[in-house]
Amino acid sequence: MSGAALGLEIVFVFFLALFLLHRYGDFKKQHRLVIIATLLAWYLCFLIVFILPLDVSTTIYNRCKLAVNSSPAESNGSYVTLAPSKQKCFKPWSYIPDGIMPIFWRVVYWTSQFLTWILLPFMQSYARSGGFSITGKIKTALIENAIYYGTYLLIFGAFLIYVAVNPNFNLQWNQLQTIGIAAANTWGLFLLVLLLGYGLVEIPRSHWNGAKRGYLLMKTYFKAAKLMTEKADAEENLEDIMEEVRKVSESIKYNHPLRKCVDTILKKCPTEYQERMGRNMDDYEDFDERQNTYPSEKSLAKLHKQVIYSVQRHRRTQVQWQILLEQAFYLEDVAKNESSATRQFVHTFHSQEPENKIIQYFYTPTVEWYWECLLRPWFYRVLAVVLAMFSVIVVWSECTFFSTKPVLSLFAVFIQLAEKTYNYIYIEMACFLTIFFLSICVYSTVFRIRVFNYYYLASHHQTDAYSLLFSGMLFCRLTPPLCLNFLGLTHMDATISHKNTQPTAYTSIMGSMRVLSFIADGFYIYYPMLVVILCIATYFSLGTRCLNLLGFQQFMGDSEMTSDLIDEGKELIRREKRKRQRQEEGENRRREWKERYGNRDDSTRSRAVHTDQKESSFSETNANRPLSKYTRSNGRTERDRIELLQDAEPLDFNADSVSDDPLESDSGR
After folding, report:
1. What DSSP string describes 470-528?
2. Where is the composition biased (Basic and acidic residues) (predicted)?
3. Of 255-259, 296-300, 577-581, which gets the smallest average pLDDT?
4. Quick check: is 352 in a domain?
5. Counting CB atoms within 10 angstroms of each CB, which of 116, 128, 138, 308 has the fewest?
6. Span 246-256, pLDDT tens digits
7. Is residue 211 part of a domain?
8. How many angstroms separate the first and last alpha carbons of the chain?
9. Taking the C-alpha atoms of 155, 156, 159 and 163 in order, what is their torsion angle to the nearest 10 degrees?
10. In DSSP terms, which residues pair with 82 in a beta bridge?
11. Which residues, at least 6 apart from 566, have a Cβ–Cβ distance to it below 8 Å?
12. What pTM did the predictor assign?
């Protein structure tokens, strides 16, 4: 099993990152480099979280071996026995051989740092640029990132000057590397505590509120009212942008040098707008530089950028509106079925997507009623209580992990108790649950926050390239300080435990923070205590109340504006529900008409087709008969010729009499 656990987790984490990226990104429409860069950033961050428990168990086994080698011992198979105490050091099932983990952490860490500080910021500007060529996009990205890179170079230079001026330091490459790592981790820890304080309270509370059907339904109505406003604004913005595109398309003709840029912009427009603009174009007209003023390439690049943004926003709001409608209809169905006597879940509307037959077989209407109306609320309540207990343990440990005698951090107590018995499975499970819960609190906040329309992770493939790359940057900056904070909570970091023991491979890559004592002994220890204040502020919804006062509508039960938006959203959902009911009634009537009169129409149609076939066959038979069979007498032939002549000549209405038979009138002739 040596190294097998590492290989299995590497493969599992890759598919996990791929699944999440597929949920938020769009593999078909977005650029491949954007998908690859975001996938690599997410994959490396998730990999650190999953592999770190294996590093902890391997480090504990290596410490045991060092303790054994420093005392009289006897070797016995796969473990070592101490002579005086007969202590056994079992090799963990997930043991990773020496030399693999340092190389692994070095590759993963520096790759993630290269992504977050150099590549991803550049790709953000490149993806959002409105340039029409690769060179133009690269130039725009370099100009936009000049201030960005200059700011971080200034911060790094400040740390470098501090170390160089201090006479206690001998500036070496390892120390210079540690300064860079300390600067990056300090920035990450500052943001980490803010996100962690929000997630520790909001995640248990959201699961507790998930058990309240009335709460979820009211919040859905509130979201519907806000989303309808955003949807209308997106449609209006798209109309304005398309009007500008139409004017530009009509002014720049087919033989203008910038016509290729206009065609590129038109390809990004929705199909209905492309068809409308194509009908109104007069490409036969030549352009005249002396008579008309044409937009520059820079203004076209700006228009191209606006088109990409407006089309993406319009498509996202449309999809989100449909998803929100389905969610609202389902919650209303749950509220209706709670009082059902048959205990079978009845849907108002049938699902538009085909359901899996296996799910239909096991997830019957009866099972669905018991889960949605009876079991699910209690499950969410129990889960909320468990998550709240974890949050309390994390807050307590964040405030006391610097204390080594006595050990007050509960996570450190759990690990040290398991270390005495060398129960590696328990150690790995405890470490995994701890860091997994911390990661959920931090990463879920990254997925939930929204900075206007600048950064927003929308599910169902509606996230733009800029937000995907920005999330990759945040993950790469938050994960290293998150892991260091976890090692501090469990006292596996020698800087916190103040023990001269073998460090983990991950800590050895980070270097000794003693180079910057004010960070190692000050900021890293006391700043995480701020999580208590942030948890209290989140519990009383101080941030939500401040945003509400500033004019940003937030869901608050005691707000009059919230009540108005709930009523508005309820009316919108009722209107959409009536509209869908009328559509389904119309489809049912058409289906019944086809079932009732479909056979009769088919038989009538078949008889008509059969008659046409008989007539066509009869005409073909007449055409193929020999002419000898149709030989007539001379009198009959003469009569036919006279009839043709009479039809060709006009009638003379001045004649005294008009005979009905033309042969009789021409008898004298």
Report:
1. HHHHHHHHHHHHHHHHHHHHTT-SHHHH---SPPPHHHHHH--GGGSHHIIIIIHHHGG
2. 582-617, 635-644
3. 255-259
4. no
5. 138
6. 999 888 877 88
7. yes
8. 121
9. -160
10. 73
11. 218, 221, 222, 225
12. 0.81
